[in-house]
Amino acid sequence: MVWAVFRAPYASDPENSRGRLHPEPEHAMRSPFQRDRDRIIHSSAFRRLKHKTQVFVYHEGDHYRTRLTHSLEVAQIARTIARTLGLSEDLAEALALAHDLGHTPFGHAGEEALNAEMAPYGGFSHNDQTLRILTSLERRYAQFDGLNLTWETLEGTAKHNGPLLAGDADHPVNRGTLCPKGAGLLDFVRSPSRLRVPEVREPGSMSWKRIGWDDALDRIAKLMKADRDANFVVKNESGQLVNRWTTTGMLCASASSNETGYITHKTMRSMGMLVFDNQARV
After folding, report:
1. Which one, 3, 164, 259, 282, has the greatest CB density within 10 A?
2. What domains appear along the chain, each with residue ranges and CATH number?
3. Angle value at C-alpha 81, between 79 and 87, nearest 5 degrees
4. Of 85, 80, 79, whose CA–CA distance to 7 is shortest?
5. pLDDT digits (tens, 9 = 90+) for 206-246
6. Cα 125 to Cα 245: distance, rounded to the nearest angstrom
7. How far apart are CA 136 and CA 214, in angstroms?
8. Are 101 and 44 in contact (CB under 8 A)?
């Protein structure tokens, strides 16, 4: 099967790019976004990603996921999503390959430690550092500093951590920033295709039917209470107080990165539920 390739009307068009800070002649065989991707791949910062792991401290071994392998995986997923939505695959790939160029070693913990040390000088953000690398720190051309990427690639990189919105710097979860999960939540809330009423598929049924919010919440509460009452463990076999509810669990991805997820996370844990939050902050 050959998948049809189409361009959505809202996709970035390389032929109508807003250009580069330092004008350059166009290439005969590569679009502006392809050239951006190639410049990122050949940059020194991209090669340095091979010694930066996402969670574990790099020592030795063939099977650790590094920032380099992670960026390649993100690029593969980005191209698939871009093709499905009719977006520019080359631009999506360039953004995916560049998104972690400014990351520190030791995952997000390394970034937080460096941010604390750099607090007297304005702090540290890996996303800000990525922009510095792309616009000034890479030195590969005599005519200019940086890689001189297109406006679209730089804009996409700047939005890697979500919309550029000012938040509450004293917020206990996000310190005033909106992470990708928060950005996704914002897009979800504003989406015209958002499901605004609860639906249920009864056991044995192949179809969904709408029900009222009161019915949905009552049903969820009754099922959760019945399961918790039947399976709640106050003490383990050794007589230690554990207050566990292990027959129902919650699996999340970076739930503590936004306020709604953080509150939900704490509520479920307070009920004794096992909550597993998967994120690169170990």
Report:
1. 259
2. 30-160 (1.10.3210.10)
3. 80
4. 85
5. 888 999 999 999 999 999 999 999 999 999 999 999 899 98
6. 39
7. 56
8. no
**How high does pLDDT run on average in the chain?**
82
What digits encode the pLDDT tens for the residues 76-116? 999 999 998 889 999 999 999 999 999 888 777 788 888 88
Quickly count: other Cβ atoms within 10 Å of residue 180's Cβ: 15
Per-residue pLDDT tens digits for 180-195: 555 555 666 677 777 7
Q: Which amino acid is at 20?
A: R
Q: Of 111, 121, 151, which Cα lies nearest the Cα of 19?
A: 151
Dist CA 93 CA 91 (whole Å) = 5
Q: Phi/psi of residue 55, each to 5°? A: -130, -55
Q: What is the pTM of this model?
A: 0.59
Q: Tell me what pLDDT residue 179 has.
A: 53
Q: Which residues pair with 199 in a beta bridge?
A: 210
CB atoms within 10 A of CB 3: 7
